[in-house]
Amino acid sequence: MSRRPVDQIAQSRDAEGRQVIWEAIRAQNAEFVSGDLFNDTWINRYTIRSYLNSLAAAGILEKIEHPDRVGQRDSVTWRLMKDEGFYAPRVNRKGERVTQGLGVEQMWRAMRIMKEFKAVDLALHATTDEIAVSIETAKSYCTMLLACGYLACIQKANAHRQATYRLVRNSGPLAPQIQRVKQVFDPNSKTVYRKGEA
Fold first, then answer.
1. Do residue 109 and residue 146 come from a single domain?
2. 12-46: per-residue pLDDT in tens?
3. SS (H, E, C) the chain
4. Is the full-model pTM beyond 0.90?
């Protein structure tokens, strides 16, 4: 089964996604069981367990098995060992870091910090040792955010310079996502924006 578009997931009755699970993990006071996260999020138990195991493989969570509880629903407890902050750690089942989508997150963070910027500035500030953001990628992201009302163009491009932008819709810490159908989904407000509907 193919993955549903993120805007459809957000509009469904039950929340989905690792960010929601991560926020529930950070809200726990000490040891917790996967059932605690299910009660807090209503996310599928298999999805929760899969992410918990991935975090344990990365050393972010400690997995504590209780032999006396074998066969019971919550025979394993968990403890947060490394709180990595607001953003859900992006790890695979082996505990390895996943970099897909990080360039967009880094561009959004850079936009929120800089007052005014060109695509080249954005690419430079979003590039790290692990993630390279090209000027073309930054231009494409800026173009879509401009069309959907996130950016204002304060100086148009010409033959000698790139356009300069200012962020005018700072909707929150999560990066707006460009979808295949050429619309922007904002995970902060769970709103979809289409070109010209700013």
1. yes
2. 433 458 989 999 999 998 899 999 999 999 999 99
3. CCCCCHHHHHHCCCCCCHHHHHHHHHHCCCCECHHHHHHHHCCCHHHHHHHHHHHHHCCCEEEEECHHHCCCCCCEEEEECCCCCCCCCCECCCCCECCCCHHHHHHHHHHHHCCCECHHHHHHHHCCCCCCCCHHHHHHHHHHHHHCCCEEEEECCECCECCEEEECCCCCCCCCEECCCCEEEECCCCEEEECCCC
4. no
